[in-house]
Amino acid sequence: MQCQICNKSEATIHLTEIADGVRTEMHICEHCAAEQGIAVKSQMPINELLSSLLASQPSDEQMLGAMDKELSCPQCGFTLEQFRKEAVLGCGYDYELFEKSLLPLIEKAHNGQTSHCGKIPSKTPADTKKQIELLNLRQQLETAVQAEDYELAAKLRDKIKNSGQQREIKD
Amino acid sequence: MKLTDISSDINEWFNGSGPLADIVISSRIRLARNLAGYKFLSRCSIAEKSEILKKLKDALMSLELGDKIFYISVDKAAALDKHFLVERHLISRHHAFGKGPRGVIIAQRESFTAMINEEDHLRIQVLKAGCQLSGCLEQINRIDDMIEQKLDYAFSPRYGYLTACPTNLGTGIRVSVMLHLPALKMTGQIGKFFKATRDMNLAVRGLFGEGTEAAGDFYQLSNQVTLGILEQDIVRQFENTIIPEIVEYENAARNQLLASQIDVLDDKISRAMALLKNARLISSQEALFLLSHLRLGINMHEHMGATTPAIERLYTLAGSADDADKPGGLSITTINRLFMLTLPAHLQLNYGRPLDTTHRDALRAKIIRSALNS
Hints:
The complex is a heterodimer. Chain A is mainly alpha-helical. In chain A, 53% of the residues lie in helices and 8% in strands. Chain A is built from eight helices and two strands; from the N terminus they run ββαααααααα. A two-stranded antiparallel ribbon of chain A has the order 1-2. In chain A, α2 (46-55) runs antiparallel to α4. The longest helix of chain A has 21 residues, at 126-146. Chain A is flat and about 65 Å long. Chain A starts with 12 loop residues before the first strand and ends with a helix. In chain A, 19% of the residues are buried. In chain B, 47% of the residues lie in helices and 15% in strands. Chain B has an eight-stranded antiparallel sheet with strand order 2-3-4-5-1-8-10-9, with helices on one face. In chain B, strands 6-7 form a two-stranded antiparallel sheet. Chain B is globular. Chain B starts with a helix and ends with a helix. Classes of the chains: A mainly alpha, B alpha+beta. Chains A and B meet through α2, α6 and α7 of A and α5, β6, β7 and β9 of B.
């Protein structure tokens, strides 16, 4: 494919832009991209990717940023402005405090997922553990169904059912 | 224990053993953890970092991790030692050249390391030769459980293990395999690999050298999603889907070389041999590039029975003393040893002092010549 700007070189950069629901595509060469001020890295470091994602969300920022922008964590003094520079948070509480601003990012970084399933520290209180285990089972069930492993899926379904019953008896 | 005790040989995960080792060099799993009740490192004072370091170091050094366990204070280490630890994949570049009190614990013949005060308070990793991700997961979980008995991790029921960067949130797990893909490169099909990794949401890095360049056709492939997925499901995806698919691509490219591009293969191996046997100065990049072709030749002979004139010549070599098990030819072990021991910091540490680039290039060329001409 030829570059849409110079019509000479091979187009190696393919941009897709979605603005107001309208999708536009652009195919250009590296030289023209540089002239247009489009920086391209073959593998963008994840931290940079994150900061650029955060920076590219003006609409979210307008909605939430007004509230979060001036916010600073009472425990560590962290602000969103610092996150934009360093791409790391200040303490565990920031996930709660800045949840509204961070959630879209977390969703993007993790393929749409926004809650944990997987290992749990053994010291976790029994009730919390139970809840997370149930989430884990549901996740495993989904994977089994996707993989068309119906035998495993049936077993998992029983497990989920049983754990629900135990809860009812306990309640 | 001194670094020079380990610098004269390759580590276990690079010794060419393990399942699928002709393509999958090694498997690695790391977990990112932070202590409850402390800020993340970017907001910690030096005193707080020292406190975290002491707490983690004391807890980890008291674990039953085998007899040879040692600790290196990274902030106090000499520049050359830091470079060595990075080359050896025992610490990250970020850890080596970061700031503040920090250290690394190395155990189980380098198959386990714990970086303290990297981006997170604690990053533990397990490395094994070949395709052994399930084994890595089992081992790292066991060690993680042992640590957790002694300390409290920052954990939220909603988000899982809390990490400084949201990209590690949840399981905090990074599953990686190091791959050698010379035939895909040689046949101009490496794009296929990159496309597959993009489609599967995986990150690709070079194994040696800085940044994304893949010197010696070694690639490191890892997961990016850490939240909302079970650790064992990530490992299963690698073992059942990702690795078989890429191994198949590389094997198809190797077969293609044999079936229709034998001259290309023979040319690359012959040129590599001629240069490596005769060069008086050789850069690390060039050595990696050329050794990769010899590694391909030997693997194609051993795994596919390929015999081309150039490959046959590899087997007429006297073979070095390292190849006692296989006289009359080069072994993968020798090639792997040359890959690692000719990296800049390895060279200098084994020589006993820092060397400038020209002297390094001369020493590297000499080591390679003597291994191939003996």
